[in-house]
Amino acid sequence: MNILITGGTGSFGQAVTERLLSFNRYQKIGIYSRDEHKQELMAKRLNNPKLRFFIGDIRDKERLALAIQDYEIIIHTAALKIVPSAEYNPFEYIKTNIMGAQNLVDVCINSVPYYGTRALQKVIVLSTDKAVHPINLYGATKLCAEKIFKAANNIRGPNGPKFSIVRYGNVANSNGSVIPLYMQQLKENKQLTITDDSMTRFWITLDDAVNFVLQCIDRMYGGETFVPDMPSFNIKDLALVMMGNYPLERQWTEIIGVRPGEKLHEEIITKEEFQNSIYDKETNTWIINPSAYVKHSSDWVIDFKREALTSNSTFVNKMNATGIKEELTKLGVM
Q1: Residue 221 is assigned to a structural domain of this protein
Q2: Which range among 7-11, 246-250, 282-286 has the greatest average pLDDT?
């Protein structure tokens, strides 16, 4: 089996590639991205004959159509992701996150395997909690990408590839996230900055995200949105834990205010989506729009209870300081 990863030189792309290389089931792993320097570094670091590197932009439909040939599975991770940057450069985010998703869907549906190549079977897109009730442009573009992928199942035909969605929160210690920022501020002996005392976020590690996506690829039937059951944490608690080596009188945070397009709390599933979702008790996963999934699942696995459900990062199971410290230790941060 062959698998292609768009945005394959990003944090998730590199982590999932390393995991895929450990499986015998994948004969060829394609990396599609526009950063030739990261591709070169990745190729040297992993040094594996299974890897194929394509320099290309998700906006380039012609190049994309060529790159997807001979792959049975595609993981779509390519996206612009920084919230304040999206507010300042909206058209660039629309071109990459929305038009790029449409380009991928188009070439996948219209792909006709060359002689001797394999037929595309599954395409899954990575989404974010910011796509739920979006107040920023980045979240709005990811919501559009979700809608594009879901609707693609209406026109793929009986033998076309299946399209599904994975949605989770910010990945702990990923590029551009708060943990690397705090590590840099600690290195410079600065006070840690937070936007608001009450701000909360969901917690998922890169390893857990990789495991979850690969699990969803195996279980997807087309049209579902998979959401992991994640804990949350308070940003201030994270900052105080990371300042544990500071003298007690210096263990305070500097409030800098909410950035443009930033929420105080995130939400991972809307109330409306809960009405068309199930909970898979075997994998601790919410599945939105699960009609095909239910047909192929055992009754004991599925929980249809939806009373008094909330997916707001304020109210879900929250990690305390001890739990945060344990997670940071696992990540090698503490």
Answers
A1: yes
A2: 7-11
Q: Which are the contacts of 153, defined by CB distance < 8 A and separation ≥ 6?
A: 162, 163, 222, 223
Query: Rounded to an integer, what distance in angstroms lies between the CA atom of residue 220 and that of residue 218?
Result: 6
Contact 212, 228 (CB under 8 A): yes
User: Residue 251: what are its φ and ψ, rounded to 5°?
Assistant: -85, 70
For 298-312, the pLDDT digits (tens) are 655 556 555 445 677
Rounded distance, CA 313 to CA 321, Å? 16
Q: Is residue 275 part of a domain?
A: no
Residue 24 lies in a domain: yes
Q: By residue range, what is the domain housing residue 24?
A: 2-170+204-228
DSSP 123: E
pLDDT digits (tens, 9 = 90+) for 129-162: 999 999 999 999 999 999 999 999 999 988 889 9
Annotated catalytic residue 162: no
- Domain count along the chain: 1
5 and 46 in contact (C-beta within 8 Å)?
no
DSSP string, 206-273: HHHHHHHHHHHHHH--SS-EEEE---EEEHHHHHHHHTTTS-GGG---EE--PPTT--SS-BSS-HHH
Nearest to 20 by CA among 42, 44, 4, 6: 4
Question: What's the CATH number where 90 sits?
Answer: 3.40.50.720
Residue indicated by tokens 């979850």: 212
* From 81, 122, 130, 236, active-site residue: 130
Q: Phi, psi (5° rounding) for residue 217?
A: -60, -45
Q: What's at 147, amino acid-wise?
A: K
- φ, ψ dihedrals at 23, nearest 5°: -100, 135
Residue 102 token pair: 């449409």
Query: Both tokens of residue 112?
Result: 């006709």
Residue pair 84/135 in contact by the 8 Å Cβ criterion: no
Q: Is residue 192 part of a domain?
A: no
Q: In what order do the strands lie in the sheet with 51-55?
A: 51-55, 28-33, 2-6, 73-76, 122-128, 162-168, 225-228, 285-288, 277-280, 302-303
